[in-house]
Amino acid sequence: MVSQMDVINYGIWGHYVLGAENLEAAIQRCITALPYHSTGDEMALTIHGHEARFSYRFSLSNQREYANIASLGAGVLTSLCKAYCPGLWQPLRIELDIPRPRRTAPFEDVFRCPVVFNARKMSVVFDARRLFAAVARPAQSPLITIEDVIRDRRGTVPRDITASVAEQIRLQLFGSGEVKIDAVARSIGFSIRTLQRELNYAGVDFRAMLNAVRIARAAELLRGTPMPIITISTELGYNTPGNFSRMFRQATGQSPSEYRDANLSRVPGFIGNHSG
Question: Which of 61, 110, 188, 195 is surrounded by the most beta carbons within 10 Å?
């Protein structure tokens, strides 16, 4: 099963990780988003000379079947590296925190590199120069942010009408960028008139909610992705970048570029960030 393991199979979390611009940024995203994917596990990236060590410590390391878990985990980490290392790339070695088995050849046949046993952590070791290599980004949506990962982990049902409408607006923005009140109403089992009445009871109106969700989503994309501002404007359904910039400034007091500059250092997975 190891050769079939792939980070892309991990839903929103996997797509978020593969939206980064290079391998170092993708690993940084892994580390940042790990608490929303696995409870109690630990992940790290360390560099010693020309070697980079991408490590994972499972909270299940005391389980009876841990040898299989460690091997499968190494397969996932290796798949992430391969996504950013084109061609016939292979690790320098795989380090497994399991006892050395009687037969080691099957492990080396699968990973196609030396395998070390009795390690402190399960790790993929590779040439550190690969971390920042300029490669074509994997074909994943750059629209996915850490907030999407958090929302996916929560998996809770909206508690009231405004939360339900906000979630449906967000889903439509994520899908096509075009939001229509009739589609939102149908998605929650209301007529347009009933939806408007319920929102009025809650003290809000649909247009105001749409604007608020759009601005919140724009802020997520500005601080969480390297996507050009003009692309964000288009993706969120604004007629022109100027209109987007004007609406964003009215809501936040900053232009989109000013907001991005102010929040750049806190963005997981932007080039220039580094994890220790």
Answer: 195
